[in-house]
Design goal:
With about 120 residues, the protein is mainly α. Helix content is about 60%, strand content about 5%. It is built from five helices and two strands; from the N terminus they run H-H-H-E-E-H-H. Strands 1-2 form a two-stranded antiparallel ribbon. A hairpin with a 3-residue loop joins strand 1 and strand 2. Helix 2 crosses helix 3. The protein is elongated, with a radius of gyration of 18 Å. It starts with 11 loop residues before the first helix and ends in a 5-residue tail after the last helix. The model has no long low-confidence stretch (mean pLDDT about 90).
C-alpha cells in the first residue's frame, strides 16, 4: 500500500501522506474506505505510531480523509478533495505567476511555458 524510502530527505510522515494522497487521487482508495488504524499501519511499516498520527492529522486538515471517533479514519469524497486541491494549486499558481511578472519575466515567456506544458514538452 505505502512504501517508504529511508534514504529520502523527505520526512517519513510526508512520505506516508504523499502515498495516501496518490492512492486517493488515483482512485485506488475509494470514498468512505476505511484506512488502517494508526497502530496497524505503524506496525506494518515498522515506524512510530506518532508518525502515522501526524500524517493522518495533516491529511484530515487537507480534506483527504475524515475521522469518526471510535470507528477510524476514512477517505473523503474525491470531488471534495480535488476541488479543494485545485483551489490550493490555483492560488499557488497565481502567486508564482504574479511574482514572476514582478521580477520582469515577460507575459509571452509565461504563456510559452504554459503552452509547452500543455503540449507535453519540457519548458
Amino acid at each position: 500500500m505505502i512504501t517508504l524510502n529511508y534514504r529520502d530527505s523527505k520526512p517519513i510522515y510526508e512520505q506516508v501522506k504523499d502515498g495516501f494522497r496518490k492512492l486517493i487521487l488515483s482512485g485506488v482508495l475509494t470514498t468512505d474506505e476505511r484506512l488502517p488504524s494508526v497502530r496497524e499501519l505503524a506496525a506494518q511499516l515498522a515506524i512510530n505510531p506518532n508518525t502515522i498520527q501526524r500524517a493522518y492529522r495533516e491529511l484530515e486538515s487537507e480534506g483527504f480523509i475524515y475521522s469518526i471517533a471510535g470507528k477510524g479514519s476514512f477517505t473523503a469524497a474525491l470531488t471534495e478533495v480535488t476541488d479543494r486541491r485545485r483551489g490550493e494549486l490555483y492560488a499557488a499558481f497565481d502567486e508564482t505567476a504574479a511574482e514572476l511578472l514582478r521580477l520582469g519575466v515577460p507575459e509571452e515567456t509565461l504563456s510559452a511555458r504554459l503552452h509547452a506544458l500543455l503540449e507535453g514538452a519540457t519548458p
